Amino acid sequence: MRWLRALLEWTAGFLLFVLFVVGILQVTSRYTGLMFVPWTEEVARLLFVWVVWIGAAAAGVRGSHIRFDFLVERLPRSVQVWIGTAVTLGVAGFLILLVYHAYEIVRSTSSTFITLNLSVKYTYLSVVVGASLMLLGLVGGLRGRSERQQGQGEP
Question: Of the candidates 128, 145, 135, which has an alpha carbon nearest to the alpha carbon of residue 89?
Fold first, then answer.
């Protein structure tokens, strides 16, 4: 899963850089009045959504989403494993529902961005891609955790 993590981090970083450049272009064109660039707002909005979902997927693959585990850590190891499995299954179920419903929105959306003449579907597609990548990272993390536990002789 290292390759996926690296790919997601580089992609999110690149998109964030492009978002920064578009933002600078938008601000300078608006306040200097030297040029008129009407598409920057829509491109920035689209890039922002993609950066959020790709970044969330990268955090999911890395395992760095926020967790409140101070109570779970006080429980016996076997209970911790069961709770961790239940939470992971709950997150996986949520991500599957999210992918399904976001895909339904992608299929049914017919509007376009005004200045880009690009379908708004690409905004919602970021949810499908990001949540799918989070799910892939979750499955990969489970597999890696299982292999580590088998190697250590733990359940």
Answer: 135
